[in-house]
Amino acid sequence: MPDYLMVSEGPASERMSHPIGETGFSFKKSERPSSALTSWIDAETIPQTARAVLQSKELFEGLTGLIRVLTETDAFGQFRAGWILGRTVRGLTSIVVRDANHCSAKGLLDDAAFGVRQAERYCATSAVVLVQQSDSNGGRKAREALESAFMASHVRPDVLYESGLHSEIPLWFACLSPVVR
User: Fold this and answer.
1) What whole-number distance in Å separates Cα of residue 30 and Cα of residue 171?
2) R_g over Cα of the chain
């Protein structure tokens, strides 16, 4: 049985073709390169790498996903960000996950604010911002954005960091290495 209740902003056609530039040619979604968030969207549980990174802290022990909401898409319907309400042995947690190819320091701060608002709304004990790399090339840019947003130095992949931005709700962040498919 899946962990998640999946919520979507609206109906999306699976047969929708996507134009290639201004050529008039198009191709099906299955023929497009997959998003960094594919494993977050299609899997029935939180991806193993993310689970391991989060559970490295006792606060996130026993993590399961309860609700998954896709919050941002590009012009072709590829997901750039999502929000997850998760359950741990210590309570609920609010998780925002973003594609590393579509992140900036300002955007990550917006994600953090959103995650904290959702944590307050659902009485969660913590909030997390995760950046998911699709390949090894996008990691440096994403880590630099995290460093700038959260005033951190030398952010390494697959390490969970605590941010001092919010005192009432603990805020954590990490850059996740690419998911092996």
Assistant:
1) 36
2) 16
